[in-house]
Amino acid sequence: MDEYVSTGTFWFTVALINAGLAEQKNRSRWNWFLVSLLLGPFATLLIVVWRAPEPVPPSMTRRGGWQEPAADR
Question: Per the UniProt record, which residue ranges are transmembrane (predicted)?
Fold first, then answer.
């Protein structure tokens, strides 16, 4: 029984570490936590090897959209 608890603790700890690594690489922390519960250390390898996605410029549509500055008159 003790071995079962320590294995589960290890798996959960790996999932938490992977969530932190994923966040540093601009990926979803929650999704990678769940994937890590299933794949464990293999998910760590995937997070480390895959390149981080390119940053996306912030959208202006939620703030009323982009407006050209008024020309000086």
Answer: 32-53
Whether residue 62 is contained in a domain is answered as no
- CB burial readout 37-71, b (16+ within 10 A) else e: eebeeebbeebeeeeeeeeeeeeeeeeeeeeeeee
DSSP code at position 26: T
Q: How far apart are CA 38 and CA 29, in angstroms?
A: 15
At 37, give phi and psi (nearest 5°): -65, -30
Tell me the per-residue pLDDT of 11-26, one tens digit each, with 9 for 90 and over: 999 999 999 999 999 8
Give me the number of domains the chain comprises: 1
pTM higher than 0.70:
no
In a domain, 64, yes or no: no
